[in-house]
Amino acid sequence: MEKVVDSMPMAAPPMDVLPPLEQFTSTPEDNVLTSLLSVCPSSEPEKINHENDFQNEMKLQKLDDQILQLLNETSNSLIDNVPEKDLGPKRDADITSESDYGNRKEYSRKIPRRTKIPYYARTIQTIKHHNKNNGAFVSCNRKMRQPYLKDLYVRSSLVNCNVLRDLDEQKTDIIKVDKSVSDDNTYRSLLEQLDQEREMRWKAEQAEKKLMDYIDELLKQASEKKDVHSLALITTDRLKDVIFKERHSKAQLEIIVHRLQNEVKKLTIELMKAQDQQEDHIRHLRTLEKALEKMEKQKAQQQQAQMRLIQEVELKASAADREINLLRTSLHQEKEQVQQLHELLALKEEEHRKEIETRAFFSDAEFQDALAKEMSKEERKHEQEVKEYQEKIDILNQQYLDLENEFRIALTVEARRFKDNQINTLEILIEDDKQKSIQIEILKHEKTQLISELAAKESLIYGLRTERKVWGHELAHQGSSLAQSRGKLEAQIESLCRENESLRKSHESDCDALRIKCKIIEDQTETIRKLKDCLQEKDDQVKLLQEKITFIEKCTQEQLSEKCSQLDNVIEKLERHNERKEKLKQQLKTKELELEEIRKAYSTLNQKWHDKGELLCHLETQVKEVKEKFENKEKKLKAERDKSLELQKDALEKLQSMDDAFKKQVDAIVEAHQAEIIQLTNEKQKYIECANLKVQQVEEEMRGLLEETCKNKKIMEGKIKQLACALSEIQKEM
C-alpha cells in the first residue's frame, strides 16, 4: 500500500477542479483483493466492507497528496515573489505575547532609527517553518494509513494554507508601508499589524503544538486501532480457515455419509439376496420334503404291493392246502373205492368159481383156440388203447412243456419288469442324490462367500466406527477451539466497541473545540460528517459482522448437531444391520443343523429302505423258489394222480374185460389173474404209501414255510411300525 501511495503522480489540479470522491476508480490491487475475497462465499459482507475501506483510504491519500502539493506550490511562489535583500537577524518564533507587548514602546521609540528593510525574513522563516512542518506532515501522512486520521491532516493543511494567505496579505501591506515611510500613521498601523501578526503567529504556533500533540495521540490511537484491526483481520482469517476446515470436514462427512449410505444400500441388497437365497433354500427343502413324501408314498405303495403279493402267496398257499386236503379226501375215496373193488372182485371170484363149478368143461383144443382168439383180440384192443393213451400222454406232456415255457417266459418278463422298475427307481434316487449333493456343494460355496463377505463388512464397520470415534474427537476439539475463539472474539469486539465509543466521544469533543477555535474548519464539516457516516457504517458493519459471526456459529452448531444426529442414525442403522446379520447367521446355523439332521435321517432312511429292498428281494426270491418247488411238487403230484387214475381206469377196464373173458376161462387163468391183481394191489399200496409220505413231507414243508412267512410277516410289521414311528418323529421335528 505504501508503494502505491508513493508512486502516485504529484501534479494536482486546483481545489475547484478536483473531481468528486465517487469518480475515483479502484486500483488493480483492489481488483485483486476483490477477486481473492470472492473465493470465500461465506465472507461476502466482509469483502464489501474491506472494499469500501480500501477505496476510502485511497481517496483520502490522493486528497492529502494533492493538498500537500498545493501547499508546496504556494510556498515556492511566495519565496519567488520576495525581493532579494539582506535580511537581519530575527528573534525566535517562540516569543510570548507579553514580551511582544512590552517591546512595543521600544519599537515606537526606535522607529526613526530603523531602516527601511521590511520584515520579510520572518515571514519567509515562518513559511519555511511551515514547509518543514508540512514535510513532517508528509512523512507522517506516508506513515499513516488509517482512514480515521485523514480529517486531521486535512485540518492541519487547511490551517497552514489560511495562515499563508494572511501572511501574503500582510506582506503586501508591509511593502506599501515601506513605500510610504514618511507617514507615521501608516508606520504605527504597520506596527499594530506586526503586533497582530505576532499574536496570530503565536496563536498559530500554540494551535500547531496542540495539533501536533493531538496528532501524536491520534497516531498512538491509530497504531492501537491498527493493531486491533490486524488482530481482527487475523481472527477473521482464522475464522475463515476454521469455516473452510469445517466446510471441508462437512464435505468429507457428507462423502462418508454417502459412502455409508451406499454401503447400507449394498448391505440391504445383499440382505435381499440372502433372503432370496434363504427362500430358495426353503423352497428346495420343501421340494426335498415333497420328494421324501413321494418316496414315502412310493415305499408305502411298494409295501402295499409286497403285502398284496404276500397275501396272494398266502392265498395260493391256502389254495394249495385246500387242494392237498381235496387230494387227501380223493385218496381216501379212492382207497375206499379200491377196497370196494376188492370186495367186488372177491364176490365176483366167488361167483365165477360157482359158475365154473356149475359150467361144463370144454375140450382143451377148443378152449385154447377160444383163448387164443380172445387173447389176440384183447391184445389188439390193449395195444390200441396203449397207443391212444400214449398219444394222449404225449399231447399232455407237450401241453405241459408249453405251459412251463409260457410260465418261464412270464416269470422272466415279470423279473425283467421288476428289475427295470427297480433300476428306474434307483436311477431317480441316484439323480436326486446327485442334485442334492450339487446343491449342498453350492450352498457350502455360498456359505463360504457369505462368511467372507460378512468378515469384510465387519472389518469395514470396525473401520467406520474408528473413523467415527476420530471424527467425534476432532469435532469436540474443533468445537472447544471454536468456543474459545468465539469467547476471545467477543471480548475483543467488546473492547473495540468500548474504544470506538471512547474515540467517538473524544472526537466529538475535539470537533466542538476545533469548531469554536477555528472558523476555517467549518468548510470541512461536511467531510467530517461523511467520515462520521463512514464510521457509523463501519460500526453497523461491525455489528453486522458480529451478527453474522453469531449466525455462522449458530449454523455451524446446528450443522454439527445435525451431523451428530445423522451419525447417530447411521450408527443405529449399522447396529440394526449387525443385529439382523447376527440373526441371519443364527438362522443359517439352525438351517445348516436342520439340513445335516435331514441328511442323516435321509441316509438312515435310505439305508433302511435299501436293507428292506434287499430283504424284499430275498423274500421274493425265496417265495419264487418256494412257489417253483410247490408248483413242481404239485405237477408231480398231479402227474402221479393222473397216472394212478389212468392205472385205475386201466385196471377197471382190464377187470371188466377179464370179468367178461374169464367167465369162460379156466381156473388157472383166474388164478393167474388173481396173482396179477395181488401184485398190482401190492404195487398200488406201495405207491400210495409213497405218495402219502410225499404228501406228508410237502405238508410239513408248507407248514414250515407258512410259519417262516408268518414270522417274517410279524418282523416286517414290527419294522414297518418302527419306520412309521421314526417318520412320525421326523415329521414332528420338521
Gap between N and C termini, in Å?
91 Å
Count of helix runs: 11
Supply the helix-strand structural class: mainly alpha
Largest sheet: none
Ranges where pLDDT stays below 50 over 5 or more residues in a row are: 1-48, 81-159
- List SSEs in N-to-C order: HHHHHHHHHHH
What is the average per-residue confidence, as pLDDT, rounded to a whole number? Answer: 70
Proportion in β-strands: under 5%
Radius of gyration: 75 Å
* General shape: rod-shaped
The helix content is: over 70%
Number of strands: 0
Model description:
This protein has 734 residues and is mostly helical. The protein has helices at residues 2-6, 28-37, 44-81, 97-102, 104-109, 120-143, 150-179, 184-358, 364-517, 525-661, 667-733. α3 (44-81) packs antiparallel against α6 and α7 packs antiparallel against α8. The two termini are 91 Å apart.
Topology (elements, then pairings):
Layout: H1 2-6, H2 28-37, H3 44-81, H4 97-102, H5 104-109, H6 120-143, H7 150-179, H8 184-358, H9 364-517, H10 525-661, H11 667-733
Helix pairs in contact: 2-3, 3-6, 3-7, 6-7, 7-8, 8-9, 8-10, 8-11, 9-10, 10-11
Tag the structure with descriptive keywords:
rod-shaped, 734 residues, mainly alpha
How would you summarize what this structure contains?
The chain contains eleven helices and no strands. With 734 residues, it is mainly α.
